[in-house]
Write the structure tokens for this entry.
Amino acid sequence: MKKLLTLILYCIPAFVAAQDSIFTEIMKKTISTMDTSSTKYGLHYSANTFERIGNTIKSEWLPFYYCAYCYVKINYMVKDDDEKDLYIDKATDLIFIAEQIDPNNSEIFVMKGFILQARMKVDPMTRGFKYNSDCLSMFQKAKELDPENPRSYLWHGVNLLNTPKFFGGGKDEALPLLKKSIEKFDSFKPKSDIHPNWGRPYAEEMIAKCSK
Amino acid sequence: MVKIIIAIILEIISFTTFGQTTIKGKVISSTGEPIAYASIALKGSFQGTSSNINGEFNFSTNVKGEKIIAATCIGYQQCEKTIVLNGSTINVDFTLNPADSKIEEVTVYAGAFVASDEKKKVNMKSSDIGTTASALGDISAAIETLPGSQKVGESDGLFVRGGSGDETKVIIDEMVVQNPYFSPVPDVKQRGRFDPFMFSGTTFSSGGYSALYGQALSAVLALKSKGLADSTNTGGGIHLYGSNIFHVQRWKNTSLKSELIYNNLQPYNNLFNINQWIKSPENLNGRIVFRQKTSETGMFKLYTDISKTKLGLEVENTENLDVKLPFSLTNDNVYINATYKEFSKNEQWSIFTGVSYSFNKDDAFMDSINMNEDETLTQAKVIITNSSISKIIFKFGGELNDLGINGILGNNKGTIKEQLYADFVESDWQVLPKISVRLGLRHEHSNFLNENNLAPRVSINYSMSKKNMISFAYGDFYQSPNKKYLYYSDNKFKSENSKHYILNYQWIDSKRNFRIEFYDKEYSNLVKDVESSSNQFNSSGNGYARGFDIFWRDQKTIPNVDYWVSYTYLDTKRNYQDFPIAATPNFASTHNLSIVYKHWVALIGSMVGFSYQYSSGRPYYNPEKPSSQFNTDHTKDYKCLDINISKMTNIFKRRTVIYASVHNLLGYNTIFGYRYLPDGITRIPIKPLSSRTFFIGVFISTY
């Protein structure tokens, strides 16, 4: 026991460094698996890996954040409404854990809005009214926490694009926000290789859709 | 911190030690199906894998020694096993049990029609009520398009499977509402007092309902009010019958809504020349809805509704056809409902407490004869729920009802004082993965009748597959006789009793739903006239109601279209009240059909819909026939087509809904029954005041 303790104390600096590099390496690998996956299996595989990393390290918000992101993507791949809700519930639980670890993080608020948006899409007629204001306040909060985060403008824009004109949405309202997100993407530097850096191609796609 | 470091050490060791162990196996569910995408994890390390589409997995690890391996998957409980890693291949299979989702949320019981905005598999959503053509925003009118209930155009209440309107109770947040409808007016159906948009969930139980409720022989309409208001909002509306204005203030954990409603039918009656009214109905209504979130899980709700209504009309005089009788009514109504619910820290226990107060005062004159009645009901209720045992939800509690009624009819005065006490236990038990059972027992004690009753309730649900289920329900139900009999307290009454047997098959998809239900209801202890001229009654009446109903709803096949069809077949006879023989009561129709159709037209941002209702002719008493043929004549069939359109738009950047509807578009001539003159030959048809009814309104809110 004493030996082990000495070993641990002796090795702490090395281990901390090793921890960082192993964590970063595994995260990088899993993020690239996620980004290149077009199948349910690939996304589930990534989600499961993220969750294992998160549950082992416990003090990092990124694994839970990406895990939630995977489940929102999976939700868009399944057809059954009940199944969609199961994945959205899971994503909601995961982003809650991420928020506990890092309470005032702009990216987490974007993800919360992104999840609410997925929940609305399951049944827009009955859920739209209920969740939309919450959803918009998430993007608003994300902008306040980090005005340079391009994803908050992107998803706010997408939200308006999906909102009928007579409810105050539509292309004309969405376009300025989407364009602003591109501006922000241009100057955006992620904090590290494994910090969120997604969404730009989708923003361009949406701008093209508006210009049609 | 030390824990994390140890985890990292293990991680590093695992990367540096030689000798790999291969772990493989299969993940299946407790019903034997392979589980895809389950996560397999070696606890305390990053290592693991996912099962493939056949439930199989396979991975290699450098970790050595005794370790815990866990399999998890969404919708299932985690399963852990201890294994020893020593370099040789290990086979581990996992069997996962379904996650303990709250049983009541996944099980559809016989008899119950659940409507909610939150639950996933539901037949109806609360918002559907607002867009059903025949409903005009009235909850009970929307319920009338569901199977089991039938349209009775001239009387209040929900008539369910051969039961009269007063055999259905309306419950808000577990608390009873004594006067859910505006005061009765001869031959004019009254609307419900409650706004459908204040509820997040509606459960319409057309039979076999929970032991939590009593004093209803036929059905229960249980409404669950919304929690905190979404946001601060101001709005109002104006329509052909009146107007309303409201303000909602939302704080972090508190919300308060105040609303003022004023309705007056005078302009409408002038416009359409409806001249039976001496005084068109005029109603002033104030509401306060208060919500306080008391903790992460606790909620206090208060609902207050105060209203005053005045009206007067001319009714047919069965003694002299040339002179109509004036009828006038002033009604005061107060309803207060306060409830509080909180969970224990581990969320295994919850306590619900509630108090409700219903006060209703009718001052009526019929041909200058004074008819006054005031009625006060105070109810207190406690429900304790425990879910600490896996797969069992256990509820118990009690309620106290204090009822006082004072009536004056001309020179006669009467008083009813009743204390009704009830206690109940109920458990929902997932016996096997595919079988769940609800067992309940309710005990009621009536001071007035000096009587104790025990009412057992049973419901069994078998899910053949995810989409197919069969359920059976049995229940015993007691209800005190109608208050009009209780005034004659020198009679010895018993509680009226009904027994329900229900068999239900349901196919439920996320956007389509088919349901067929067979029912048998046996009535006993119904009030029977011994000598009605001297007000002598006893409880020797009996009867039955049996049949089946079918429901089909489809929101999938045609894009942007939602429609449902309900059909109820009813065979019922009773020997009660003044019936000379067992006969079908005059409110019961054998065949009942409802079709509701809604079409979302994106181009104009409008919901367009219609509903069609058909009921076969209702029996009426023809004095020319011998008493052996009592109630064997039938009115002509009831048919009604309603259409509506609601357009959502923006006016001055405010959310605006324009709503228009026509009731009985084709102007079918409706006759509910006949009233005979003393000569036994001349008869007056009972008809609605106007054949077509129009509605148009604009509702604006800032949110």
The longest strand of chain B covers residues 412-432. Residues 102-106 of chain B have pLDDT under 50 and may be disordered. Residues 2-16 of chain B form the longest helix (15 residues). Chain B has six helices and 41 strands.
